[in-house]
Every structure is written in C-alpha cells, then in structure tokens.
From TrEMBL:
The keyword Cell membrane does not apply. Keywords: DNA recombination. GO terms for molecular function: DNA binding. It comes from hydrothermal vent metagenome. One of its GO terms (biological process) is DNA recombination. This is Core-binding (CB) domain-containing protein. The keyword Cytoplasm does not apply. Residues 1-43 form the Core-binding (CB) domain. PROSITE patterns: CB (PS51900). InterPro entries: CB, DNA_brk_join_enz, Integrase-like_cat_sf.
Amino acid sequence: ECKFESIKPESLYHFLEFLTEGLAKATRRLRYAQLKAFYNFIIETCGLEIKNPCSAPILSKSFRMPKRKVRKILDKETVDEMIYNTKNIRDRLIMELQARCGLRIGEVLKLMEAEMGCRWKSFPRSFSGIKI
C-alpha cells in the first residue's frame, strides 16, 4: 500500500513494461495513454496539487506513437488487369466489389442476396467482361 503522491515515473515505467511485454507498439502506446488519462482524472477529481507522473520524459519517449506505414496504392489500370485476369467468377466478383465499392473482404463475404434487395437488378450486365 502506498500513497498516490509517492508513485514515481520509474515505477510506472516498470509496470507498463510488464503489462505490455510482447505487444505491438500501438498497443503499448494505448496503455500508456489510458494510464495517463486515469492519472489526469484522479488529479482533477481529487483536486491534488501534483504533477502527473505519466508526463515524465522516460514514459513519453518509451511509449511514443509508432510511425505509420505508407500504403501502396495501385493505379486503376493495374486493378482492372488483376480483376480481368482472375479466372474464378466468384473471386472476380469479390474483387469487383472491393475495388469499385470500397468493401473490405469481411464485408463482401457477409453480403447476402436478401440484403441487396431490388438493387441486385441495378448492377450492370457485365463485370470486367463476365456476362451475368
């Protein structure tokens, strides 16, 4: 048992290291942000005149936001060629829905014919050269 004011940044660092061992950098950053928000809440709610121990440089540097990966975007011609070269009709339709509607694979696979309703008839007669 210890007083709230006696908690040091080094103790929090070791706690967060233990808590987030083996996790992704983004998850580690999230746990740090949650702990910092908790301390801010306690300090404001209780009217304590202390500095948030999570604001220490050792913590903010160790649990930095990871750099975002740059996504490679394919040009329209490449996507059209990939779709056209797909032999399986099901796969071709899935790729069409992903490319043209922006659906993710999970969303495409969960689509049901009943959900399409009358819109099913509004699709063009062919998808990338396939007659429907």
